[in-house]
Amino acid sequence: MNLIELTTKIDSEEKARAFLEKMRWPNGVVCPRCGHEHISRLAAYGKYECAKCEYQFSVTSGTFMHKTRVPLRKWLIAAYLLCESKKGISAKQIQRMIEVSYPTAWHMMHRIREAMKPGDGEEKLTGILEADETYIGGKTTAAQDDRHGGKSNKTIVLGIIERGGRVRCQAVESVRIEDIRNFVWGSAHNIDVLYTDQLAAYRILDRWVNRKSLNHKLTYIDGDIHTNGIEGFWSLLKRGINGAFHHVSAKHLQRYLNEFIWRFNNRENEAIFESLLRKCGGAMLQYSELTH
Question: I need a surface site. Which of 35, 48, 194, 275 has the fewest CB within 10 A?
């Protein structure tokens, strides 16, 4: 679906509501609280009631659009633009394009990013993997961060990627052994081989996995031993942050990572926008949560 097709399908609030209902419940409305399928439509506009638990809800209940005063048409266009912008799109640009205030656009974008985060039941990475770390923000160099044990003004991000497949990354406070171990085991299983650089903390993984490392001071590739896949993701991430956002605070960095992970993992999915709408539950970020 392209932008012209979307705006044609949702050229009124009624059509936008019907479109979202079809995307969220392709097989018919179900209760978002108990999953029951016997639902009554109420006389109140856009409301439903579950016959089992008597929960009253709307098509936006439990989604990133929950209890919003912003028209659904604007929400859907903003979500589409975020999904289809390879290097991201700033809240300032969204403000101009859908005509809302900057705080509203900023809040909307973070709600959508929260909906993009990997779910608890999402399948872990497997097979041939590459792991690496990078530094986001601040004015010091990566080498200066290494000398200070990661305690400078940059935020450390750990990443792991399947060769030719999916990626996971996480903002962390340090690259100590326990951080590396917890991140890898939380992101991957059934590892055939793990390629890394020669950061000492990765050695803890040698007890459990077949790990091969490369000295980046000498070369970046030695046959099959390289981390070019995760380095390519870092390049995409940093071009997006520098080009679209210019500055990302450590407090909100993980949500920006969620956004880039979602787009990267769905890079071959022609229905990436529709996929987001089908998993859009559980992202009810309040504005106060973002500002305090």
Answer: 35
Report strand pairing: 47-50 vs 125-136: unpaired
In the three-class reduction of DSSP (H, G, I as helix; E, B as strand; rest coil), residue 68 is classed as coil
CA pair distance 1, 77, nearest whole angstrom: 12
- Other CB atoms within 10 A of residue 228 CB: 14
32: burial class by Cβ within 10 Å (0-12, 13-18, 19+)?
Answer: buried
pLDDT computed for residue 152 by the predictor: 65
Residue 25 · residue 278 · CB < 8 Å: no
| Token couple for 36 | 């029951």
pTM of this structure: 0.89
Nearest to 74 by CA among 13, 1, 8: 13
d(CA 137, CA 104): 25
User: Does residue 288 register a pLDDT over 90?
Assistant: no
pLDDT at 150 over 70: no
- Whether the CB-CB separation of 279 and 120 falls below 8 Å is answered with no
CA angle 127, 131, 133 (to 5 degrees): 165
Rounded distance between C-alpha atoms, residue 289 and residue 275, angstroms: 26
* Residue 158 dihedral angles phi and psi, to the nearest 5°: -95, 140
Q: Where are the domains of the chain?
A: 3-115+272-291, 125-250
Amino acid in the structure at residue 12: S
* Model confidence pLDDT, tens digit, residues 37-72: 999 999 777 899 999 999 999 999 889 998 889 999
| CA angle (39, 41, 44) in 5-degree steps | 140
CB neighbours of residue 70 within 10 Å: 15
**What is 125-250's CATH topology?**
Nucleotidyltransferase; domain 5 (3.30.420)
